[in-house]
Amino acid sequence: MLIDHPAVIALGSNQGDREHYLREAVAALKALPGVQVTAVSRVYETPALRLSGVDENAPSYLNAVALVRSVLPPEMLLGSLHGIEASLGRVREERWGDRTIDLDLVDYDGTELETESITLPHPRAHERGFVLKPWLDVNPDAVLVGFGKVSDLLARTTDKVALASSIATLDDTASPTESQQVKGS
Ligand code: A4P
Ligand code: MG
């Protein structure tokens, strides 16, 4: 029998129709064989973080977090995320540059791993309000392996993370309440 593992995926978009890309990414996650989406956070609007720091003049991001259960091992899951990014027109030009969609694997069942192709947990998630805040939405007790409680980490962040209140849910097949339900990690 295949064992499924809880994993946390961060979604971000700051180019084009950002809500559309987030919606399409959630739909694509749901369609991945071996992956079950268990919860989707609300959507947050956040100023772009560049390599040079926060850039209020750059197009802002919409960010969200999805919880999944995956029978795919972490490398394969990340490969599938890259496939979704490619299908949604992601072009890799500049590190931390504008993008239609970015899908990061934040946590995979508390695994700590560093290879040439993957680092777990995501090395910058612990200091990013735009990841921690939506994660707490779908799991108020979340813990980031090696760093501690997500609520404590969030209290230490300084980036601005505002609820995009006009967007009720990214999960077109669930009611807003269901889409925020905690069913996984
Ligand atoms: N990679 C290794 N481990 C992981 C992992 N756990 N999750 C590799 C995702 N990717 C992982 O990523 C660069 C390389 O990291 C890939 O080869 C991947 O296999 P990328 O997506 O190609 O490029 P990137 O996203 O520009 O680089 P990076 O360093 O991953 O950036 P981040 O940390 O993802 O940050 N500002 C706001 N407000 N909201 C955002 O969502 N996102 C970024 C990107 C910058 N500023 C932002 C936001
Ligand atoms: Mg990335």
Please explain how this structure is put together:
- The protein is α+β, with helices and mostly antiparallel strands and 185 residues long.
- The chain has a single domain (5-163), classed as 2-Layer Sandwich (Alpha-Beta Plaits), CATH 3.30.70.560.
- The chain is built from 5 helices and 12 strands.
- It has helices at residues 18-31, 74-87, 129-138, 150-155, 176-179, and strands spanning 5-13, 35-40, 44-46, 48-50, 53-55, 61-70, 102-108, 113-114, 119-120, 143-144, 148-149, 162-163.
- The strands form 4 sheets. Strands 1, 2, 3, 6, 7 and 12 form a 6-stranded antiparallel beta sheet that branches. A two-stranded antiparallel ribbon has the order 4-5.
- Bound molecules: 6-(adenosine tetraphosphate-methyl)-7,8-dihydropterin (A4P) and magnesium ion.
- Residues 12, 46-49, 61, 63, 78, 92, 95-96, 102, 104-105, 117-120, 122, 124, 130 line the site of 6-(adenosine tetraphosphate-methyl)-7,8-dihydropterin.
Quick summary:
With 185 residues, the protein is an alpha+beta fold. The protein is 26% helix and 28% strand.
List the helices and strands and how they pair.
Elements lengths: L4 E9 L4 H14 L3 E6 L3 E3 L1 E3 L2 E3 L5 E10 L3 H14 L14 E7 L4 E2 L4 E2 L8 H10 L4 E2 L3 E2 H6 L6 E2 L12 H4 L6
This protein binds 6-(adenosine tetraphosphate-methyl)-7,8-dihydropterin and magnesium ion.
